[in-house]
Amino acid sequence: MVERAVGSEVVTFFSSDAFIPGTSVTLGEEAAQHARVIRVSPGESVGLRDGRGNAAVGVIARAAKRSLTIDVGTAWEISAPAAAHLMMPVGDRDRMLLLAEKATELGVTSWRPVMWRRSRSVGPRGDGPTFQSRVRNRMIAAMTQSGGGWLPEIHPLATPDRAIAAAPGGTRLMLDPSSETQLAATALVEPVVIALGPEGGLEPVESESLAAAGFTGVSLGEGVLRFETAGIAALAIVRAMLSLRTVPGGADA
To answer: What is the reported pTM?
Structure first.
């Protein structure tokens, strides 16, 4: 696996094309417009990401009204972060988009929206194909702006039972503000799955279903957080704990 630190590129663009040094990548009208807005021009160095761990640095060769051509210079791979999956509630659209953005910056592995019982009364609710496209676009923007290399896998909306059945093994966590067990004091084994309830919390039958499937109730401390705040905080704690396992003197050292 070849690694390379992010350099002095003016901006990073997303592309699903292969990044082969000595070849060119042509991006569409959206990228061309973005380049005009931030005033980058031919000859300037830019970054490229495909969301699957492939990265490159290139030089803008041509900037047209509806296209942007980049000559690929150096290409490398970005290692995937430790696996951390999010089962998040269908909720308010704007709050879901904020969580999608920050979860991507924190390197979440997958995004699975769940229609908990209390999700049904939310409006305007974030669900459906159009909203899923907005989530993906927000994630792409977050990945390129943060210098990341991996986009989360976006799963379709699921019922609680289907979401639980699809959850991978490893450490299964259920955020519960009433739990006496702190997330930061919990031993983690990859992959980690975080189940996050909607505004108003999970109903008892939902908590029982999660517990029966091996989900451990954990809290983030005192107080009740909004679901997007709780999701961001939980991912940040999990990401920090998993990263400690891979550094000298960490848990696995």
So the answer is: 0.90
224 touches 177 (CB < 8 A): yes
Sign of CA dihedral 101, 187, 225, 132: positive
At 17-72, the pLDDT tens digits run 999 999 999 999 999 999 999 999 999 999 999 999 999 999 999 999 999 999 99
CA separation for the pair 69, 25 (Å, rounded): 6
Looking at the DSSP assignment, which residues form a beta bridge with residue 13? Answer: 48
**Token pair for 114:** 């769940």
| H/E segment holding residue 56 | strand 54-63
> Homologous superfamily of 12-77 in CATH?
Hypothetical PUA domain-like; domain 1 (2.40.240.20)
Residues contacting 145, CB < 8 A, separation 6+ = 12
**Residue 119 is encoded by which pair of tokens?**
């999700």
Distance in angstroms (rounded) separating the CA atoms of residues 175 and 235: 11
Do residues 122 and 25 touch, judged by C-beta distance below 8 A? no
